[in-house]
Amino acid sequence: MKKVVLVAIMLVASLSAKAQSYIGYLTDNYSGVNGVISNPANIADSRFKTDINLVGVSGFLANDYVGVGYSDLVSSDFDFDRDANLMLTSNNNFSGNVDILGPSFMFNVGRKSSIAVFTRARSFVTGNEFNGESIDDLDDSIDESQDFLVDEGDFFAAGHGWAEVGITYAQELMNKEEHFLKGGLSLKYLKGFGNAYVTGRNVTINYDADGATLPNSTTIGTLESTGDLIYGRADDYDDDNYDYEVPDANGFGFDLGFVYEWRPNYEDYVVTGADGEKTVMKDKNKYKLKLGLSLTDIGSVKYRGSLIDNYNINNTITQDDYDNIEDSDDLQNLYTFTQATEDMKAGLPTALHFNADWNIKNNFYLNFNTDVSMRSAGENNLRTANVFSLTPRFESKWFSFYLPVSSYQYSGLQVGAGLRAGPLYIGSGSLLSTFTKNEIQGADIYAGLKVPVYYGQPKDSDGDGITNKEDGCPKKAGPIENNGCPWGDTDGDSVLDNEDQCKDEAGPVENNGCPWVDTDGDTIMDNEDQCIDEAGPVENNGCPWADSDGDSVLDKDDECPNEMGTVANKGCPEPVVTAEVQKSLNEYAKTILFNTGKSTLKDESTPVLVDIIGILNEYPNANFTIEGHTDSIGSVATNQKLSESRAQAVLQFLIDGGISPARITAIGYGESKPIATNMYKDGRQKNRRVEINLAQ
Questions:
Q1: Which of 286, 351, 545, 669 has its CA 20 to 30 A from that of 613?
Q2: Is 91 in contact with 377 (CB distance < 8 Å)?
């Protein structure tokens, strides 16, 4: 160390930067194993069967202290004092990094999970809260013998180099139609290569050009300082005989991330296997909108046996003392100094990342990304500044091109460009702005080589939705249920086997490919039988005849199917012999005439008897009695015999006229039932009669 540590720190061109890696490239869905850098969830459901990164290098440096034009910077006569533009504030910062992604690879474990193993070497420098306005003028003021006051306050600077060996596991957490979520975790073993930091607390420097008078009466400047300086380091880098050895330093870290995808057209990316199981195409990006959130670089490296120097600089020295400072030994003679050997932790540059990716259309995307530091400025902390990037890109399997536009917290707007062409990726987040801006405040570049093994589009030669790999008939379209083969027709009845319920017996389409049967055995096939479970005659379409009124006369024979009747009356109810009918019969009977004293009928009685036969036929189920009567002239026996003979004569006429003998009976009452007096001729005429009455 050639100057006082304080002055050396202050003379560093106070810078401010974002230590970013692979800007633009990490937004690509084909970044593969490199994607674990920003979000470990990226490797799940990726476009790769496997991805092997051979080597990738990214370097970044930016600041808010000095800006230089590109043409001036590359000019052979570049002069810093003349060509550089200083942007001095009371709070200048700096940071930069080199990130080397070594041999790394990822592969899939089943359909839902992926694993990555990666190696990485990183170096990082950062400084915060330097008072650039004061520091820039300090040496000039001393050289020009001008009074000067530096109120530096607190400031921090740190540098760290380390290696990582990590393993990442990521898997699908949710896959519900248009909603998809995946998560990932990286565990990292850290090996420290070197670390140093400087911290200032309440530092002030007051230079008085005439502060002291020498014995020869000349005046000399004095440098009055206050505050504390802490200088920690993993090894004694200031020793002139220093020989680097890998320090005893290691630690652990982890990254955690999640990615959500909105897939409104998810059905377009579903592949159905021969077993009916549905899987999502691996070779396609399925989302319309993707959101990612991750927390990276959580952890620290512990350096054992580190050196911690503490300088209390509350002292006043002369300009000669200042000019004679060559190394730390000189400082120790001027200021209160203590040194301790103890373990020292170097925190990683923890950051929160949010990413939103919109698929505009087909291969065109627009990405928004922000990185927010989760480390506060402090001793031995590596800290990134906030950045917001908007990156339009064209993306395909073998080629991608992107134009990141980034706004950095300190160094302003940067415009870059990058591309990926098969195994090569190269780009810069500041490429375009470097050549177009008048003042360059930062620059970065990255490049790498890898061996990508992409998923191919599943082949479906017959277009039946089943990939050839799982299709039993890859050249003939067929349904999933039949292993991708068309259905056959085993029995040749034109009903395909998947719909044929009797695929070994020919049958009509309307009976699902089965032959018709006669279930009830009535000789009528079921297709024509309207009552397939009840035997019935052909004329009634295979159904048994009904007896609607339950009178035991089947409807086909029942002339009154809805009224209970009798068999004899063809299913109709029998007519009732009313008193009027009875009276009408007897009126007819009174006109039946016999020859005098005989039982023979007179011819003029024939029409009357024919009418009586008609009346009796109207009541086929009614039985009647034919009663013969006489007057009292003659003996009782003679009259009895005559009445019986006459009743029998009428009965015989009726039987001859078609009346059933079972329905009529003949009986003679002689003179025993007169209806008038026999004393007079008129009465005796009334008593000579035949009556036809309803049998009781």
A1: 669
A2: no
pLDDT tens digits, residue range 6-56?
333 333 333 333 345 788 899 999 999 999 999 999 999 999 999 999 999
Q: Are 645 and 604 spatial neighbours (Cβ–Cβ below 8 Å)?
A: no
pLDDT at residue 388 is higher than 80: yes
pLDDT in tens, 438-469: 776 677 889 999 999 998 777 777 777 777 77
CA distance 253 to 246: 20
The residues near 40 (Cβ < 8 Å, ≥ 6 apart) are 116, 168, 169, 170, 184, 185, 186, 255, 256, 257, 294
Residues 6+ apart with CB under 8 A from 380: 158, 160, 195, 197, 232, 344, 345, 346, 347
Q: Report the pLDDT averaged over residues 398-415.
A: 84
- Residue 511: φ, ψ to 5°: -110, 30
DSSP class of residue 326?
-
539: DSSP letter:
G
Helix (H) or strand (E) holding 562: none
CB contact at 8 A, 575 and 618: yes
Span 252-280, pLDDT tens digits: 999 999 999 999 998 888 876 666 677 77
The C-alpha R_g of the chain, in whole angstroms, comes to: 61
Strand 104-109 with 85-86, pairing: unpaired
Helix-then-strand count for the chain, H and E? 11, 27
* Residue 551 Cα distances to 202, 352, 534, 556, angstroms: 123, 96, 21, 13
pLDDT of residue 666: 92
**For the chain, what percent of residues have pLDDT higher than 70?**
90
Spatial separation of the C-alpha atoms in residues 653 and 253, rounded to whole Å: 133
- Burial 613-625, CB ≥16 within 10 A → b, else e: beebeebeeeebb
Instruction: Report d(CA 331, CA 320) in Å as an integer.
Output: 13
Nearest-angstrom CA–CA distance, 69 and 436: 9
Mean pLDDT taken over the chain? 83
